[in-house]
Amino acid sequence: MKATAAGSTALVIVLVVSAIYLGSTLLIAALRLPWDMSLPPAIRVLGVLPIAAGSGMLAWLFRYRGFVDILVSTHETFLKILGRMPLQERRIRTEPLVVVGPYRLVRHPMYSGIGMIVLGIGVLTDHTWALLGAVLLCVWFAYGIGPFEERELKALFGLAYEDYARVTPRIVPIPSRRLRSR
Predict the structure, then answer these.
(1) Which residue has the higher pLDDT, 77 or 2?
(2) In a domain, 182, yes or no
């Protein structure tokens, strides 16, 4: 069951991300915006920094949560978004609330890591569609899937998640917020 859920979820993720990037490409074409941003090479090279930081965040994340566990929890989240499962239900999602490792910095380190990587790629490649696609993907994380997942995690973990969320930023690590809560 877990392998099927993980495989179907990976396919859905690829389709959603592809649709976002296709949409950004079509928007660039429809608005007749330039294909490239003509950034100076010195600025383009700076794209390596968020790629490295995002890759580090994901590597750190995978030390605390397995890739299949992430896909399984994402699968159940998608089922809940589609209304096929109540928010508080757990079918094959068995992991506890994780608040260690990168989860000490942000509640959604996967979104942070992927967001940094795609923004860095957009700058490094100097393609308008790639940067717009990255921005749209980050907007989807921050205002689409992220808030829904927050409601789901509150339903699953209750007060423990609410306490954690109160002191931990959602996607962008903000050190002062963590310090104020101590």
Answers:
(1) 77
(2) no
What are 26-56's pLDDT values in tens digits? Answer: 999 999 999 999 999 999 999 999 999 999 9
Does some domain include residue 27? yes
Is 68 a domain residue?
yes
CA distance 13 to 20: 11
Q: Is the pTM value of this prediction over 0.70?
A: yes
Does 179 have pLDDT greater than 50? no
SS (HEC) of the chain: CHHHHHHHHHHHHHHHHHHHHHHHHHHHHHCCCCCECCCCHHHHHCCHHHHHHHHHHHHHHHHHCCHHHHHHHHHHHHHHHCCCCCCCCCCCCCCCCCCCHHHHCCCCHHHHHHHHHHHHHHHHHCEHHHHHHHHHHHHHHHHHHHHHHHHHHHHHHCHHHHHHHHHCCCCCCCHHHHHHCC
